[in-house]
Every structure is written in C-alpha cells, then in structure tokens.
Amino acid sequence: MKNLIKCSFIFMCFFSVCFISKNVQASEVMRISNTYQYVSDKGEAKFYIPWRDKGTGIFSGVDYDGRLTFWTGPGKIGTTVNFSDEKTEVSRSDDGKNQLPAYSASENSTKIGEWILPSGNIPANSNEKFVTLELDNPDFVGVIRPLKISLDYSDPFGILSQLEDGVGTLYALTLTKTKSVSVPIDSDQGTVNISVERGSYINSSSAPSSIDGEVNQGIIDSDLTINLVDSQGKIVSNLPMKDTNDNEVGQWYVVDNQISWELNGKAITGPIKTVHYRAIDDRSNSWSGWWSQQPSDTGNTIAGDASYNVSSIEPQIGQVTAKYFDDNGNSIAEDEILTGKIGYAYSSEQKSITGYKFSHVIGNSSGKFTADPQTVTYVYKKNSTPSTPTTPTPGYTYPKNNGSVKVGSVVYGTKHIYLYKNFTFKKMNAKLPTSRNHGLIDPCLL
C-alpha cells in the first residue's frame, strides 16, 4: 500500500513537471508593481509595464514566460476589480483580442473608452510595448476603473501570483476641470460661486496594494487651490474689473481661496469684461518617491500634456435699451443704452426730435435693472405740412348776351350806367354807354 502511494506521488509530480514545462516555459523570475498616468488633454493615458526585478527570500517572483494577462470590469468607486466576477473581461497578450473596454467607476459604470493592449511575447524589463487608454470623450472627469495585469499566464490572480508580486494595477487619473460661471453684479461687492468637476486620485497614506489598492481610488475630496488667470495665462491674485469702454469700475481678488469682487463707485458705462480662473489639486503623496500625483512631475504624462483648464467668469449687469421709432417702425434717432447694477433703478428719457411729435411709449420708461436685457420704445408721429393755395392768373372774360362762361374762369363784371331823357326813368328811354373798356363810359348826349 505504501509503495502504491509512493508511486502515485512520483507520477503526479512527474505529470505536473511535464505539464508546467509544456505550458509555462519560464524565461526568468520577475515581479510587477503599480503605476499610474494622468489622462492627457487629448483623452489618452499611456503606460509602460511596471516591471520589478527578482526579489529575495521564499517569494522572490513569478516564473515569467513572456505572456501577460489583463483584466478589468465595471464597478462602483471603492470596489475591487475581481478576476472571477462574471462581468470581468479578460485578455491575454497571445489571444489576439488586443483590447478591453474601459469603464467609469460610478453607479451605472458605463463604458467610456478602450484599453489598447500589447500583443505577442512581451520581453521582461522592456519598454518597447505599452498599454494605452483611449477615452471616447477627452473631457471626461471622474474615476476610471483600473486595469489589472499579471505575469502569471496559467493562474493570473492565484495565491502564488499574489504572494510572488506577480500582479500589478494600472491607474488612469483625471484632472479637476472648471466650468464657466455667470456672476450677477447686484451690489457693491460679492463672491463668485465657482463650478468644478473634481478629478480622481488614490487616497492612501501608503503605497496601494497591487491586489486591492483600487478600493482607495476615488474623487478628490481635499480643498482645491483657486487662482485668477490674466490675459497672458499667468496666475495672479487680483485683476482690475473693467467695462467694455475700458473704464476701471472695481477689482477681482482671491482671499481665503475664494474669488471675490468689489466696485469702486465709478459709473458703469457698458458690460463688464470677462475674467478667467482655474482650480487645481496641489497636494502631494510621495510614499514611493516618484508617487507624487502631480501632472507636472516627470513620467506622469507619457501620452502628452495633462493641463488644468481655464474657465471664464462672466459678469452680468442690468441693461436697458431705449429706441426711438416713427409710427411705421422706422428708427428716427440713435438708441440710448443704460447700464447699472441688477436690482437698482433706471430712468430713460423721451427725446425731442425735429419734425416729429411724441405719440406713446412701449415698455417701462423707468424701473429696475434685471439680469435679462430690457427694451423701451418711444413712438413718434411725423408733423403734418399745410397745403399752399394756388393763386389764379389774372384775365378777363366778357359773357355775351348773358351767355354762360367756362367753369373755373374768372368773370369780371361791368356796371352799366343808364342815362334817361326825362324824369320818368323808363328803361325804354335809356341810352347805354358806347364803350366797355375797363368799365369806362363814353359821354353821351342827352
């Protein structure tokens, strides 16, 4: 019986050695670690394989044969990327797959891009082949599920792989981004409510574990450093507040990591110019010397620059436009534009316009400035011009024998003087004048 057991044991050992020799073909003992990269402005992160040389002691490393195993999967912030989970997706460098989906770490954990993987035999300590993350949206901000990598092809996440430091993690980190904001100028001073989308980092006071370090990856929860940015792109602590006519009407400044503004009492003669700001995460974790989590540090942006974006602060003031139209809708005078603090009073004026008489007003000629532009329209009627009468041309028309005359002609009458032979004044005894020349009567003999 003892001999049978002994023979069985020897056979199993021989079979195991043959199986391993056939499938592993170890080239050298290696270890692997964690690494991270910031997503570039173009939406890419590029990783070299984080090789580590053979260690000392019992667990000195994995017999690496040139084949790598990669896996990732959907999940929430603070959860591990479990190799055995049914949703986990796996690819090996020699299976021809060459890519895996990239997921956001959120409630929905949606697909946001692709991990592009090296293929074929990957030499140890070689930087000739690398892993690249390509995001669908370059402006994505948040936590990205990491990519796990193993030097052990046959048992990628087995106990021995973990003990021998044969498992590592690739973290793609995103920078905080700011958004443009509107600021109502409704008093003499105030503060700016900035808008930010916080980026991601590895929240750990020590180097994260290669096995489950992703549980420490999350949204930046520390205070951000807020800066004003001038027209040359320089970081400044204050800026003049100017209107579009280049009049300095106040000041922008940063106090206690907050942007504020204050007017100086001068008249605002037009819209106030836009200024710019940014928000950065400037804390540093340096437990491994190189692990400082800053995009400006050497080696943290292999795929290209990762820059904190700059956004605008857009002041809102009240504006009222007074228009002057005739009753046919034609402009008859230049517009008058009134500007001022939101909530404060305004009063527009009716103009005296030559040749026109004021009719009525549309809108509020006085009131308070609001965040939305307002319009008041003054309507006028054109003055009427009296017609000039036509002066007739002098002329003479003498109707004959009490006849008719042409309509519109001028008729001149001639008075007849009758002379009588006796005092009876009978018309039959009268004698008519012999001349009608301009009403003159020739002398008649009685």
Largest sheet: 5 strands, mixed
The gross shape turns out to be elongated
- Our count of helices gives 2
Taking the alpha carbons of the first and last residues, their distance comes to: 196 Å
Structural class computed from helices and strand pairing? mainly beta
Q: Which radius of gyration do the C-alpha atoms yield?
A: 49 Å
Order of strands across the widest beta sheet?
2-12-11-6-7
Fraction of residues in H or I helices: under 10%
Poorly predicted parts: 1-25, 435-446
Strand content: 25-35%
β-strand number: 31
- Mean pLDDT figure: 85
The tally of domains stands at 3
Topology:
Layout: H1 2-23, E1 28-32, E2 35-38, E3 44-48, E4 51-52, E5 62-64, E6 69-72, E7 89-92, E8 99-103, E9 111-116, E10 130-135, E11 147-150, H2 159-163, E12 167-173, E13 177-179, E14 181-184, E15 189-191, E16 195-197, E17 200-202, E18 217-219, E19 225-229, E20 235-236, E21 238-242, E22 248-255, E23 258-263, E24 275-280, E25 311-316, E26 318-326, E27 331-340, E28 345-347, E29 356-362, E30 366-368, E31 374-382
Parallel strand pairs: 2-12, 14-25, 26-31
Antiparallel strand pairs: 1-4, 1-5, 3-10, 6-7, 6-11, 8-9, 9-10, 11-12, 13-16, 15-23, 17-18, 19-20, 19-24, 21-22, 22-23, 24-25, 26-27, 28-30, 29-31
